[in-house]
């Protein structure tokens, strides 16, 4: 497995990799969710590149950029075991040189959900993803369903800007109790970790109601809120039942929907989602 | 010479074209300025694609989108004579489908000059150029020095977003009396056409002073303003002496500089520029 930090080196090493090439963009501190993306890419592509970059422009000033967990040695060992061809670990200085001033912005889709709670977050995401795509030139790029809105926003960017890249979204990988895997789970203390399963419990309950025939969005929303408010350590940021394509909030009858939520468990903000109905 | 309108067709035809490929993005109504870009591309590249697209998002509501001159048959005949391989003529509907919502924005450089007079103009330019680049996948793209700020902004976008494309800027092509060629020159009546040479006269006078040893930006600025204000049909939008890279306005001594101006001749807004000093 090769590793590289500069874009020039990356481009040289990219030349010797066979197409179709799959890119798995990550912020490191890898867990089984990331590795499932790598495995999917390995199955579908001739070569696989993983990028590890804790992208500062998607964190706000009050967020956890400086404390975001990192363990590069462990990450590289895991990726080596998966048979990844090349790991790109750019520096902040090379990605954002002093005179950097170009942004890729997806407008409407980023006004909801995470975009409402985290202004400028998606501007940072789409800008860095565009940079990763242009530097690596993959045929496919792999994202996790856990960051549902991110995948939807990146797909919109790819479509709007005519990028010749297929976005592949892979299922959320969960802990045995249902908690969605996330690098940020490492922030949770023992008590918080137990409480954190409440996100999954609320979503699973909603999915259960839907499977049993419930279609009223307000009753499903209330069922989720009830479970969440019964957890003393949980502080709700948002609970949403949204159209899968436009992310408009659904009132009344649900045909298919993205159920998603952001909940603080102690100081740690977690997100999770499920899809109701057939896509 | 092949022509195509849809992106899917373009991509198929692109596959049979040899690299390096040069792209010449145009809004049609071609003149010798455009053709000089095509010739430069022909000299440096194995294949040449020209796009013709009057991009609505770079016009403001009060500008000349609907009256912008068009003559596709003539354009195609000219490009055929130049030995262009493929002409892409996308429709507005395909470039901007109803749900379109992604923008590429270069910030600081677009706050000056044309960007100050035409808010959102460059957002439209950089977005459509990113789309053209992603659809055509050229190794080189050719722009005219006449739109000096445009070239500088596109170069910044390419650098910031890591696009694997070389931006080639070709000299301004002028009429015998010095007027910079522009599709918008067709708006000028006989009297206005005669008056329009005043832009070049002012720039040439400034270049002459500089060549004779004048380095004081205020005196050079005044020399240009004097010539322009002596032309009754000319209404000055801006006259600028700016840093070639940052586009900051230069006060005091000039080492090298972009002299640029926008001047209305009757109802028609014209721009022109020269570079002082060695780049």
Account of the 3D structure:
The structure is a homodimer of 279-residue chains. With 279 residues, chain A is α/β, with parallel strands linked by helices. Chain A has two domains: 2-170, HUPs (Rossmann fold, 3-Layer(aba) Sandwich), CATH 3.40.50; 183-274, Pantoate-beta-alanine ligase, C-terminal domain (Pantoate--beta-alanine Ligase, Chain: A,domain 2, 2-Layer Sandwich), CATH 3.30.1300. In chain A, 37% of the residues lie in helices and 22% in strands. Chain A is built from ten helices and ten strands. Chain A has helices at residues 7-15, 32-44, 72-81, 92-95, 113-117, 121-136, 148-160, 190-195, 198-211, 217-229; strands spanning 2-4, 21-26, 47-52, 86-88, 102-106, 140-144, 166-170, 234-242, 257-265, 268-276. The first copy, chain A, has a six-stranded parallel beta sheet, with helices on both faces. Chain A has a three-stranded antiparallel beta sheet with strand order 8-9-10. The model of chain A has no long low-confidence stretch (mean pLDDT 97). Chain A binds chain B through residues 7, 11, 99-109, 126-127, 130-131, 134-135, 137, 156-157, 160-164, and chain B through 7, 11, 99-109, 126-127, 130-131, 134-135, 137, 156-157, 160-164.
């Amino acid at each position: 497995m090769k590793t590289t930090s500069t874009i020039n080196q990356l481009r040289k090493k990219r030349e010797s990799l066979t197409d179709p090439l799959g890119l798995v963009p990550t912020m490191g501190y890898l867990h089984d969710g990331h590795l499932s993306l790598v495995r999917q890419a390995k199955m579908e592509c001739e070569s696989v590149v993983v990028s590890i970059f804790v992208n500062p422009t998607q964190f706000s000033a009050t967020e956890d950029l400086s404390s975001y967990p990192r363990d590069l040695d462990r990450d590289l060992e895991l990726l080596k075991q998966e048979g990844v061809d090349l790991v790109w670990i750019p520096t902040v200085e090379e990605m954002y040189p002093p005179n950097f001033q170009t942004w890729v912005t997806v407008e409407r889709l980023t006004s909801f959900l995470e975009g409402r709670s985290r202004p400028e977050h998606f501007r940072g995401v789409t800008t860095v993803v565009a940079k990763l795509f242009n530097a690596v030139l993959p045929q496919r790029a792999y994202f996790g369903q856990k960051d549902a809105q991110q995948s939807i926003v990146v797909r919109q960017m790819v479509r709007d800007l005519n990028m010749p890249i297929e976005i592949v979204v892979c299922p959320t990988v969960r802990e045995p109790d249902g908690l969605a895997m996330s690098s940020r789970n490492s922030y949770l203390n023992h008590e918080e970790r137990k409480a954190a399963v409440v996100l999954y419990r609320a979503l699973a309950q909603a999915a259960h109601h839907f499977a049993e025939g419930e279609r009223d969005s307000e009753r499903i929303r209330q069922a989720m809120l009830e479970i969440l408010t019964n957890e003393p350590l949980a502080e709700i940021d948002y609970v949403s039942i949204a159209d899968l394509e436009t992310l408009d909030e659904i009132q009344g009858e649900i045909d298919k929907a993205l159920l998603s939520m952001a909940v603080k468990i102690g100081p740690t903000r977690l997100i999770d989602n499920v899809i109701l109905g057939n896509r």
